[in-house]
Amino acid sequence: MRRCALTAQKYLDNLKLYFKISIMYIKRLLEKTLKDAVKSFPAVFIGGPRRSGKTTLSKSFLKGYNYVLLDEIDLRSLAIEDPRGFLEKYPPPVIIDEIQNAPGLLSYIKANIERNKNPGQWVLTGSQQWALMKGISETLAGRIAILHLFPFSLEELQKTARFNLSEASSFINNLVHAKKLPKKIIPLGRWILDGGYPEVALNKSISRKLWFSSYLQTYIDRDVRGYIKQSNLHDFERFVKLLASRTAQELNCSTLSRDIGVSVPTIKSWLTLLEASGLIFFLMPYHRNFGKRLIKAPKCYFIDTGLVSYLVGLQDEIHALDGPMGGALFETACVSQFYKRFSAFVDPCSLYYYRSTDGLEVDLLIETSKTIYPIEIKLSSTIDYGRVSPLIKWLGISRIKDVHGLVISNSKQLGAVGKNVANCHYSLI
User: Fold this and answer.
1) What structural domains does the chain harbor?
2) pLDDT at residue 400, as a whole number
3) What is the mean pLDDT of residues 6-18?
4) Which residues are within 8 A (CB) of 110 and not within 5 positions of it... i.e. 6 or more apart?
5) Which whole-number Å values give the CA distances from 227 to 62, 281, 414, in the listed order?
6) Confidence class of residue 128 from pLDDT cuts 50, 70 and 90?
7) Helix (H, G, I), strand (E, B) or coil at 421
8) What is d(CA 320, CA 395) in angstroms, rounded to the nearest whole number?
């Protein structure tokens, strides 16, 4: 009896914490872009992985909007069976959440926009799906701004976001010349193990294993099942776990095909599905000859290291950092921060990696309209010449003037560590 009472009390305590978290709002990098979008376009779509905070952002940031959730059966039925009646019941300005549940609404929204092109009328949110994105692009082309919201970045979680540094050049130069660390630093192991999904990152009493297990199953049931044969679902889950173990590595579809036992075209279609879902992204290799970028293999990264940690079976911070995947997880965490930031600000810069035939490697190149910034990512508290030499060599052969290379590490020694090379602590990115 006492045990049951304690279990019930723990449940109630967790429930209270959940509701506390559910009303907590953390400022997002995407806010500025969203504000500009609703002033410029009749419709705005906020896509991204499931549970990344799209609903919280739209409801918290867009005050005065009607709100309707298409996960509710009666509302979904109304939207599908009587779209005109649905839109009359929920007139703009309106947030329509989980729009993928009633994609037929898009053509009716288009008709409404044709009659009234005032900006900021329709805000649509939904989990990124290939079919949905195709429908939005085809139906509302030129009438809709497409934005992407990913799980929390580190600067969002630490509340150290530099909203005034929306351009890549200004942000990177700020990292190069940083003089002090943030007051609040999330420990490296915790950052990697938890990742950035709000419910995991903000609720320390939640079961990571249970949450990510449920997340993966929901993703397969809702976003994948319609595109993959029932007989292949188990292979798809194996594929996702195998891909997670190879995050931050060059992609080899033939090897994945052999290890999973499916065809190369199937592997490529599954990769497209994961990318469209916002779970992974790719870095292409950098070459002066643009055509060569299309020939060489990209590197594949997961958006969230918490999901990777779950998929590869990591249970604690020590094994996450000191295990064989420590370097890859740290690189994935850091590269994804740049990807999230530049996606939020819709910065026209491009991300690449560099690998020459003679063995010179640079983890990340950020190409802007004016220059290229080389970045090395090192899971180390000690930064010496051996760790920065790839940057020095690359700067030498590239002959780019007035550019510093940047090392991102867990060393708190900020500033110059070599000619035109500076160290940056991970907490600053």
Assistant:
1) 31-148 (3.40.50.300), 156-428 (no CATH)
2) 85
3) 45
4) 139, 140, 143
5) 34, 20, 48
6) low
7) strand
8) 32
Pick the more confident residue, 31 or 6: 31
Cα dihedral 395, 398, 404, 409, rounded to 10, equals -60
Strands 66-69 and 94-97: parallel
Give how far the C-alpha of residue 287 lies from the chain's centroid of Cα atoms, to the nearest Å: 25
Q: Among 202, 340, 364, 378, which residue's Cα sits nearest to residue 283?
A: 364
List of residues 6+ apart from 402 with CB closer than 8 A: 371
Confidence band for 21, pLDDT divided at 50, 70 and 90: very low
Strands 280-285 and 249-250: unpaired
Question: Could you identify the residue written with the tokens 């029932």?
Answer: 230
Q: Which residues in 337-373 are b (16+ Cβ under 10 Å) and which e?
A: bbbbbbbbbbbebbbbbbbeeeeeebbbbbebeeebb
Q: What is the pTM of this model?
A: 0.90
pLDDT per residue over 378-418, tens digit each?
999 888 877 888 899 999 888 888 888 999 999 999 998 87
pLDDT of res. 13: 47
Residue 355 parent element (H or E): strand 350-355
Contact 168, 23 (CB under 8 A): no
**Cα separation, 229 vs 190, whole angstroms:** 37
Q: Name the DSSP letter for residue 300.
A: E
If one counts every other C-beta atom within 10 angstroms of the C-beta of residue 112, the result is 17
Instruction: With both helix axes pointing from N to C terminus, report the angle between 253-260 and 233-244 in degrees, rounded to the nearest 10.
Output: 130
Q: From the centroid of its chain, how far is CA 251?
A: 19
Model confidence at 229, pLDDT cuts 50, 70, 90, reads confident
How far apart (Å, rounded) are the C-alpha atoms in residues 200 and 54? 16
Rg (CA), the chain: 23
Partnered with residue 377 across adjacent β-strands are: 408
Q: Are 253 and 265 in contact (CB under 8 A)?
A: no
Return the closest-CA partner of residue 299 out of 260, 278, 271: 271
Contacts of 136-139 spanning 24+ positions with Cβ under 8 A: 136/45, 136/106, 139/106, 139/107, 139/110
For residue 82, give the amino acid letter: D
Q: What is the mean pLDDT of the chain?
A: 90
Which residue type occupies 348?
A: P
- Tokens read off for 252: 């080899």
Q: Which residues contact 213 (CB under 8 A, 6 or more apart)?
A: 310
Residue 365 one-letter amino acid: L
Phi, psi of 47 (to 5 degrees): -105, 180
